[in-house]
Amino acid sequence: MKKIIFLFVVLLSVGFSKDLLQLGAEAYIRGDYKTTVEQFEKTCDSGYVDSCGVLGILYMNGQGVKQDYNKAAELFKKACNGKNIESCSILGVFYESGQGVKQDYLKAAELYKKACDNNFPESCHNLGFLYINGQGVKKDYLKAAKLLEKACDGNYFESCYNLGLLYTNNLGVKQDYHKAVKLFEKACDGGDIKGCYNLGVLYNNGQGLRQDHHKAAELYKKACNGGNIKGCYNLGALYNNGQGLRQNYHTAKEYFGKACDLGDQNGCDAYKKLNEKGF
């Protein structure tokens, strides 16, 4: 939805066939996707490549038309070739996943680079992961770190989390827990639950900052509430051991149970032990 609204704004601001574009935009907002498709097909066929990008999203999502990844890919190619960078970014995802096109990591890398060079942080992130995994490019953690840093600077918070992991694990960059703390903090504040969990681990272990089990517990709770399995288990362990908060076996059992429900065997085992003890 946000991608389409953004493209509408771009289209309407540059003086394209405003009557048709306005009709298409208004139809989309009121949920009349069939009319949206009709209007943007006209403007796309008239050579307005940004309209082709919008149309590609509609085919990708199956809005107003039968979902068709092949057709979406064709439209994104047309838009990308016309310098619609948003479409290049999405097309890169298609090539990486083999959706609507034959899987081609090298092509995905080329498209991500094009979008990243035009300040699309998500594409910088995706290209960084191709370097981490050695897909379409030679594995290179240093290049990956630089790309994740660029994405993080662009407030793509998942990149902040992953860059934090590189600093924690001495991959491509010198191990630096202080930098990891700042990156996990930014990720957590931006809504990345894994960032909250990993920041909790650093507080729990006293790595890069003063050890603080109570702060670790707060972060584990935030992570657990967001569905992070390890966050639930670790919070249960703190309650079980009375670290950073008052020892409470009933509450520990509750969080071990949440971890178990999310698929963690250790959580199941800890829950079972406390249950057998009558808690």
What does this 3D model show about the protein?
This protein is mostly helical and about 280 residues long. The protein is about 75% helix and about 0% strand. It is built from 16 helices and no strands. The longest helix is centred in the N-terminal third of the chain and has 13 residues. The protein is elongated, with a radius of gyration of 23 Å. The chain starts with a helix and ends with a helix.
- State the separation between the terminal residues, measured CA to CA: 47 Å
Largest sheet: none
Weakly predicted, low-confidence segments: 4-17
What class, by secondary structure content? mainly alpha
Give the overall shape, derived from the CA principal axes: elongated
Helix content: over 70%
How large is the count of helical segments? Answer: 16
Global Rg? 23 Å
Strand content: under 5%
The ordered string of helix (H) and strand (E) elements is: HHHHHHHHHHHHHHHH
Number of strand elements: 0
Mean pLDDT: 91
